[in-house]
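fyi for ur records
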Amino acid sequence: MLLVEDDDGDAVLVTALLDEVGATVDVTRARTVRDAVGLLPGFDCVLLDLGLPDASGLDGLRRILEQAGQAAVLVLTGHDDEERGIQALAVGAQDYLVKGQVDGSLLLRGIRYAVERRRAEDTHRQLREERLLAQETARLERGLLPTPLLTEQSPRLTSRYRPGQRRMQLGGDFFDAVTGPDGSLHVVIGDVCGHGPDEAALGVCLRIAWRALVLAGQADDQVLSTLQELLIHERHREGIFTTLCMATVAADQSSAAVYLAGHPSPILIDDAGPRPLPRDRAGLPLGVLTEAKWTALELALEPGWSLLLYTDGLIEGRTGVGHERLNVEGLVDLVAVCHRDGLVGELLTAVERNTVGQPDDDLAVVLLQDSR
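which gave:
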């Protein structure tokens, strides 16, 4: 406990009262508010006399509270100044005691009460902050992971999202799917670099903009250019970039156009087995080079096809062999042993089984399957 008391007699009385009841309290004394501020924080409790030479009124209490950290603050008032003790509670003190009306038991009980009340206040505040943060995270999650706009004729779509171990630092992984006026299915999956509310908010912005551009009928190659322009204007600092994969499946589900902007290669699954799409047409991530261009990879889709899109959180887990990661090749091997029905659930289980530790990064997975 830090005792802030300029009167030698009162200081001796406080220590005597604590000794009287056998209290195991380590007391450090400061004679002025200035001396006390130099010693803080680092105490469980501060016992503060409101009548100090370098503080008037409740000014000393305010200065102590600013530096007290997690310490409880208990004030001492004169016999004829109890009203100021009540005012001290309103300012932020945990309790007050009146000089001359305190014995050892009451003093010890007051100290313990103040410390426990302070801890309860801290716990309540932390719970409230965590609840508010969880609510904000949930709102951002809904923005990042919307309800796809599909029709009965659309390819089957299965999606999963899993946060990394930094649960309260939501990342910028996002995905969306929209059916165009001609019946084609447009799908996007992306990942804003970094973690936190700013990155998540930017992911929401890009996802909503993508949906609006697709519904407005903008050509696929122009959508990426527009998203890059938006990213550059909306990002909160230089250097923020976004990897992105965009696919358009024709209405008859026999072909697709895939754009890669620095994103991991999707995995095509058909009778020939799973394999990553070639990266010869892959472009830079959004936000790296303003003059960047992206070219579509045209795919012919055989009956019974599946196309797996994902963010890099799925493939960055360590396999336990040194620093080796699962990577795309390891993911393809896992896909090969999963059943087509229930593939996403089996695959996530297989990834967890074949990697060590909890995933640091968020991951998003979208599986498109032939519905003909």
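The mean pLDDT is 87. thats all i got for now
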